[in-house]
Amino acid sequence: MNIAVVSYSYTGNNDMFAACVAKGLSATHIKIATQKPMTMGSIIMDMIFARTPKMQPCPNNLKQYDLILFFAPIWMGHIASPLREYLHRLKSSPQAYGFFSISGGADGGNPKLFAELLKRTGTKPAIVLDQHIRDFIPQNSKPTRNDTSAFKISEAEASKLSTIAIKEINKLTT
Ligand SMILES: Cc1cc2nc3c(=O)[nH]c(=O)nc-3n(C[C@H](O)[C@H](O)[C@H](O)COP(=O)(O)O)c2cc1C
C-alpha cells in the first residue's frame, strides 16, 4: 500500500510524531509549510475568520497514494488552518485518509474534530487519533493552556506514540 504522511507543525510536535510514523511504515513524509510564516496573531485571525493559508508544496500530487495520513495541531478547538487546503482537496478528489494530532488537551478533548473532518473533506476518516499533551504531564498537576502549548514532546515519547498509531494503521491496511 502506497501511504503518504502529510504533516504540519508550528512548534514541532506533530512533525516529530509524523516522522516516526512515516519511518515505521516506510511511507513518504511530506512536511507542509505556509508560504508566509505563521505567527500567534495569524493563527488567531485564521481561526476567527476561517482563513485558509497558502501552503507549499500545494496538494497536487496526492493521487498516487492509497492512504493519506494527516498530522497537525488543534487550535481553538479546530484543525490547524494550514491543513485546510489539503483537506479541501479531498472533497473534489476523495481518497482514504486518517487524521492524527498531538494537541494540548488542557480544556479536555476536542469534540468537534470528527465533524470538522467530515465537513472539510466530505468523507469520514478511516482513523482519528487525538493525543493530548496533558497525558504526558504528571497527573496530579493541572496544566494550563500555556503549559500545554509550550510543551515539546521528546523523541522517546514520539516514538512510543508512533508504535500505538502504527498498530492501528496496520489494522486498516492488512
Ligand atoms: C493558538 C493556539 C490554540 C490552541 N488551541 C488548542 C485547543 O483548542 N485544543 C487543544 O487540545 N490544544 C490547543 N493548542 C495546543 C496545541 O495543539 C499543541 O501545543 C500542539 O502540540 C502543537 O503542535 P505542534 O508542535 O505540532 O505545532 C493550541 C495552541 C495554540 C498555539
TrEMBL record:
Highest rank taxon of the organism: Bacteria
Protein name: Flavodoxin
Organism per entry: Fontibacillus phaseoli
